[in-house]
Amino acid sequence: MKAIKTLREMVKPSAPGPAPSFTEHHLIRALNLIGERAKVGRGTLSSHLGLGEGSTRTIIEHLKEANLAFVSREGCELTEKGKRVFGEIKAWIKEMKEIDRTGYELGKYNVGVLVKGVADRVRLGIEQRDAAVKAGAKGAVTMVYRKGLLFIPPSEEVKGEWVEPVRRIIDLFKPEDLDVIILCGADSKDDAENAVIAAALTLINAKT
Questions:
Q1: Which one, of 187, 198, 190, lies nearest residue 138 by Cα?
Q2: Which run of H or E residues covers position 180?
Q3: Which listed residue, of 18, 56, 180, 205, carries a Cα 20 to 30 Å from 161's Cα?
Q4: Would you give the DSSP letter of residue 9?
Q5: How far apart are CA 108 and CA 50, in angstroms?
Q6: 101: left (phi > 0), else alpha (psi -120 to 50), else beta?
Q7: Are residues 121 and 202 in the same domain?
């Protein structure tokens, strides 16, 4: 996936300088926010990403250098290239939503994401869990949607007391056949969002 490869290059440390204080997860969240709102001020972006002004300024500079964004009086906006990258990411990561009160809470803050058509890339869900925990999650669950049912890998159909929470999740994300839903919980919303993107990237990167 060209979009992810582009962002991955942007977070590589440039020897002999220090490593960037942000990750590709932050870049994806920044592109999503700017793409969805069209224009975003630096303060809003900083608050949304949970980063300081300095790190946010650096992200904007990196986006500008990659010709993904530019700054106007109204705020930060995407270039045509930035819009294409944003569109490519959204084609895979369709929905990211807070999932409190579904019955599948995994931490103080809980976020879920729908990843399109990657069910065949899921093995045991361990890869997604490990990536999420590394990015700050307290826990993560991967679910595969097949023929109107959600399964927890490798093939466990959700039953019993979890049927009602799963129904709420299906109603919330409205998956289609072979979509994957990943749920992450963390101590902060920023960690939960970074974690769910990190988990999703394990599936998207597998197709690049």
A1: 187
A2: strand 180-186
A3: 180
A4: H
A5: 16
A6: left
A7: yes
Residue 120 lies in a domain: yes
Q: What does 108-163 look like in DSSP terms, one character per residue?
A: SEEEEEEETT-GGG-SSSHHHHHHHHHTT-SEEEEEEEETTEEEETTTEE--GGGH
Question: What pLDDT does 138 receive?
Answer: 92
Distance CA 3, CA 6 (A): 5
Domain final position from 34, 64, 88: 88
Residues 78 and 143 in one domain: no
Segment 165-196, tens digit of pLDDT: 888 889 889 999 999 999 999 999 889 999 99
- Note the pLDDT of residue 18: 57
Distance of CA 200 to the CA centre of its chain: 6
pLDDT of residue 208: 42
Tokens of 195: 């974690």
Q: Can you give the residue range of the structural domain that contains 59?
A: 2-88
Last residue of a domain, one of 33, 64, 88: 88
pLDDT value of residue 168: 86
Residues in a beta bridge with 140: 184
Ranges of residues in the chain with a pLDDT under 50 are: 208
Residue 103 has a pLDDT of 67
